[in-house]
Amino acid sequence: MNENGPVRYKVAEAARLAGVSASTLRLWESQGLLVPGRSQTGHRQYSADDVARLKRISWYRVERGLNPAAIREALEGEEPSADGAEAGQGSGLGRKLRSLRHASGKTLDQVAGDIGITASTLSTLERTSQGVSFKTLHDLAEYYGTTVSRLSGEESEEVPAMIRTGEWRTWPETTPGVTVQLLAEGRRMMDCHRFVLAPGAASEGAYRHEGEEFMHVLSGRLELVLDSDQFFDLGPGDSLYFESRRYHSWRNRHDGETVLLWINTPPTF
Length: 269
Hints:
By secondary structure, the protein is of the alpha+beta class.
């Protein structure tokens, strides 16, 4: 457990709290009922919200005798937790995605199937605004006819053009190790961001959209791939400009943080 942040439970601890075995937790994960977080070393980590969900799954299974698909539907019909430990600055993004899905008249299983992810992954994202790759977040935004920037709350009320150093507002941290800070706010013709990437952080897949983009590496090292066959190894002081309609993916190749400026125009990401 981490005394300086949200409580995280190991598999055995979460299983004990939920009153089931560790193997049952792994079975439920394979059935798409819940997707736990992962530590930097790849071990499963369960939040307080996850444990509460596990207890609900157990209740539906034992008391109601529901199968996995029926349990997913039952959990979907419940209101998201308003006081969970994972709620916070990122909860708005999950609520927006949930509202967009409801407005489209689609279930978790339908949207997840269309995007190519599990229903439990999408459910976790809607409840906690966490747990998906950068590429998946982009795919969901495109699916609903919007952009990641809008989902993240960038198009807010008019704000001053000047933002002082260290006072950047931050996107909900949907992807572990990827921090996106706003260098400009309000309605504008450019998305201006400061990316801070932890060691090994990556887009986890290629994506594309309309527009053009520019990046400038401040520190660290970034590998960017265009159209699956053009590789760029960018170090401090290096810049790259490319058309956003080209498939692009990226990862931090540095053993420490990589920090870069990233600008998209028009704001289509």
